[in-house]
């Protein structure tokens, strides 16, 4: 989910010459479900792929604050506003836990942040869509956080210790996010005709992009094999996507809403909801930077970073002044 | 342009009176006061703690996991430090 664009350059991770004995021991530990910690030996490709995945996961959380933050001042009640504010604060917190995990692999926090600001790093495609109505906030909590939870629970058992532990913490906090979203959808669906229509419209716009969150179909994912071997990825994109669909379709039916998929049908024999064709061209465009909000998201993040520069500088200058005064007093 | 670096701190939280502080994670902050506030915002949004410690990561000395065999060898072989090593007849009751 956080490496949606990684398949683009499979040669970048060609196997490197590494001590065969160390490599064998590493692979045995991973196969044994042992956790790899920051000071343990790990192949360069493992370190690289994890640095990218964890940092892109972190970037996604930070950027994800924007589409929802957009509605904080316009939430329909105090309760909704407090809940949304708490959710957005949580997303910030999740981003920070993830940066803390990513930097244990050797790339500094500042470098990781710079990769996002410079446009070098990716973040989850879903956050490049606009939140046009209050119902979008319900749809995001229900579908986007729902999809994220599907992906994050297996990551709690990822082979890299710091990432797994960050995920455990995140998952504990994440369940309120989905419930908050579903509660909004429920309230709208049971409200006036206009409110129900608004909920339906939001579902129509967020359904397919949420399915795309899981990444390209397995047949098109050249990269997944190493990630699976190294127990970074536990389930394939299609497996997780199917799990999400199976869980969510009944939830939509309970709301009395229609899913924007005329081909959706229940396969009795297999016990799965079969869904229609995903528009992978749209996905490609959004990942490449041509989604509705890509430029806005990055511009907003850059501005926030620049506007906050004086605070960072002041904090640093003050800390240095205090440290110098302390040393002088001790002398 | 990459920003200048900010020190890394480790955060420990004690959730209730009588319990030990447990490591919760890390964060970056310019000084101790900011580190404490950031720790509160980042790691206690759900009232997880009543006491916070923040320690500069550079102040921590850790044993090398690679040396684990050598470092902890004595403890593995001294099983007489465990109560189960000793036999007490059942008639004596709980000891």
UniProtKB/TrEMBL annotation, chain A:
EC annotation from Swiss-Prot or TrEMBL: 1.14.13.149
Keyword Cell wall biogenesis/degradation: no
GO cellular component: cytosol
Keyword tags: Oxidoreductase
Oxidoreductase found in the keyword field: yes
GO biological process, any: phenylacetate catabolic process
Enzyme class: oxidoreductase
Top-level lineage group: Bacteria
GO molecular function list: phenylacetyl-CoA 1,2-epoxidase activity
PANTHER family: 1,2-PHENYLACETYL-COA EPOXIDASE, SUBUNIT A, PHENYLACETIC ACID DEGRADATION PROTEIN PAA
Protein name: 1,2-phenylacetyl-CoA epoxidase subunit A
């Amino acid at each position: 989910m956080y490496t949606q664009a990684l398949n683009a350059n499979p040669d970048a991770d060609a196997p490197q010459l590494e001590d065969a004995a160390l490599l064998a021991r590493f692979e045995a530990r991973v196969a044994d479900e042992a956790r790899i910690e920051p000071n343990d030996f790990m192949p360069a490709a493992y370190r690289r792929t994890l640095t990218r995945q964890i940092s892109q996961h972190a970037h996604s959380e930070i950027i994800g604050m924007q589409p929802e933050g957009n509605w904080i001042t316009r939430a329909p009640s105090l309760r909704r506003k407090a809940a949304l504010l708490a959710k957005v604060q949580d997303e910030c917190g999740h981003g920070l836990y993830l940066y803390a995990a990513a930097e244990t692999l050797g790339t500094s926090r500042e470098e990781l942040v710079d990769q996002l600001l410079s446009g070098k790093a990716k973040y989850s495609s879903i956050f490049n869509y606009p939140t046009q109505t209050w119902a979008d906030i319900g749809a995001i909590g229900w579908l986007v956080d729902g999809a994220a939870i599907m992906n994050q629970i297996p990551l709690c058992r990822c082979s890299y210790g710091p990432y797994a532990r960050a995920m455990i913490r995140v998952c504990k906090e994440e369940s309120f996010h989905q419930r908050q979203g579903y509660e909004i959808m429920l309230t709208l669906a049971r409200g006036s005709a206009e409110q129900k229509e608004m909920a339906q419209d939001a579902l129509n716009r967020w359904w397919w992009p949420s399915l795309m969150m899981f990444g390209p179909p397995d047949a098109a994912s050249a990269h997944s094999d190493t990630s699976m071997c190294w127990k970074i990825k536990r389930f394939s994109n299609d497996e997780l996507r199917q799990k999400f669909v199976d869980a969510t379709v009944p939830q939509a039916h309970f709301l009395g809403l229609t899913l924007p998929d005329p081909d959706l049908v229940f396969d009795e024999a297999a016990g799965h909801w079969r869904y229609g064709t995903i528009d992978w061209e749209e996905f490609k465009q959004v990942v490449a930077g041509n989604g509705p909000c890509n430029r806005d998201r990055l511009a907003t993040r850059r501005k926030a970073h620049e506007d906050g520069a004086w605070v960072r500088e002041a904090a640093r200058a003050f800390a240095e002044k205090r440290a110098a005064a302390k040393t002088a007093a001790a002398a | 342009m990459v920003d200048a670096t900010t020190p890394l701190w480790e955060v420990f939280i004690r959730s209730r009176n009588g319990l030990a502080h447990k490591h919760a994670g890390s964060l970056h902050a310019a000084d101790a006061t900011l580190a404490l506030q950031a720790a509160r915002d980042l790691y206690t949004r759900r009232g997880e703690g009543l006491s916070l410690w923040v320690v500069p990561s550079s102040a921590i000395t850790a044993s090398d996991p690679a040396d684990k065999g050598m470092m902890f060898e004595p403890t593995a072989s001294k099983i007489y430090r465990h109560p189960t090593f000793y036999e007490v007849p059942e008639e004596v009751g709980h000891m």
